[in-house]
Amino acid sequence: MQDSTIEVIEGSRPRFDRPVKILVAVAGPEQDINAALVKGALAELEAAGAEVEEISLPRVGDVPQALALAERMQDYDGYVVLGAVIDLPVLWSEVARALTGLGMSGGLNGNGLILAETPAAAMQLALPEGGNAGGEAAASVLGLIGLAREWGGKSKGIGFRA
Q1: Beta-carbon neighbour count of residue 119 at 10 Å?
Q2: Residue 157 carries which DSSP code?
Q3: Which of 25, 93, 102, 111 is most exposed by smallest CB count within 10 Å?
Q4: Element (H or E) spanning 52, and its range?
Q5: Residues 113, 115, 119, 122: what is their CA dihedral angle, to the nearest 10 degrees?
Q6: 3-state secondary structure of 22
Q7: Where along the chain do its domains lie?
Q8: What letter does residue 128 receive in the DSSP assignment?
Q9: Could you say which DSSP state residue 160 is in?
Q10: Domain 20-151 carries which CATH code?
């Protein structure tokens, strides 16, 4: 078996042989909820030794376009998306669909967008000592980056296998 660029230990985060560069996109007007999401995400990213840049966007609906720009014009290993959508499931669904499309085309991302009926419910999901949605989104993208680095040098080849 080839040497891997990451080491995964059950119940812990990947360890990288070179730094991971992450863009954290924080969106929407829910400042207190966003602050809780950022706190959880940064704790996870810092523990993994990631280099982090953060942008703020006024509307959640702007996130897919901003990340598409970053994917074309910058050199990030992945993205963490944070924000809260209060009682607008169609908006949340459309943004989630766009983020999945970005991920399928190589723009690895952890989705920390919360859909909740009330700001109080969203806060419970956002708090690091609660649902820790920001930390979970960061852990998700770190795991995906680990897989991409592990599988990056492998090829299935062409033609038939013997």
Answers
A1: 15
A2: -
A3: 93
A4: strand 51-57
A5: -60
A6: strand
A7: 20-151
A8: T
A9: -
A10: 3.40.50.960
